[in-house]
Amino acid sequence: MRKRIAFAIVTVLVIAALCAAVFLAVGDPEKRTLRYFDTHREALEQDVQSASETGRASTGLKITQNLWDGEHPILEYTVINGGIVTSSKYYGFFYSFDGEPAAFQNVDVPLVQTSPQEWTWSADGDNRGLVRRLDGNWFYFEANL
After folding, report:
1. pTM, two decimal places
2. Distance CA 59, CA 52 (A)
3. What is the mean pLDDT of residues 94-114?
């Protein structure tokens, strides 16, 4: 009986350790998004060049990309999204053609500057987000819809 209990405890500990290792290896959504940005920076720069010349992105990167018009046009890349319709979260980055920050999907809502390189926004209901300058015209974003 004691051997079974000891075996069960060891099994639970091993499973917990494996789950923790997987979580640490994958990282949180922000770290994963920034790692993707760093790893694919050259292809992203080529994508921006193509979009500015032809009006469309064309790298073939396996993430969602959208070109959003507006007062400050952006080329947006969504790296991670999840949740259900009433509680969705999006993580990604975008290139602002004029270097100005923008809300998720370039929605026309005011940005509130919270630091020299960071802004927040909120819209109808509980829709809100964060924008942070990475460098130059590149920005990281989080959106909670």
Report:
1. 0.81
2. 13
3. 97
